[in-house]
Fold this protein.
Amino acid sequence: MMKKLSIILIAMVLFTNPLICQEKADTSMFITVNGVIVDGNGEALTGVTILEEGTANGTVTDINGSFSLTITKDAKLTISYVGFTTVSIDLKGFQNIRFNISDSLIQFCCTNHSPGHCAETMDEMEECTDKYACTFN
């Protein structure tokens, strides 16, 4: 009886270990995107729907227009709000965004400083990097 129990325990250890390793490896395939959605006047929008394109994975913005969503690394986001055109954006690996829903303006924001340091173009990103030592994810 002890021999059977030992064999069962060894088998359980051998077969569950690869599953644990697989689970840890899969976490590198995901990123958490943090952002703020605003209107044309820069006012935060509450209740904007943000979805990982092609999935049911999503969230809505809070009272400050903020959201946080964990998505697959290369996923696109679909942003929709009543009265505005639904927009699909490719984040290109960036994790911090400020999105003006009225004119589809995307800003990539510093990850190591205040959210006020944001850039819309590569030139602006370089300027923020030089001036504020920003890093962009």
Summary: The radius of gyration is 21 Å. The beta strands are 30-38, 49-52, 58-60, 66-72, 76-80, 87-90, 96-100, 105-109, 118-119. The domain at 30-132 is CATH 2.60.40.1120 (Immunoglobulin-like). The first helix runs from residue 2 to 26.
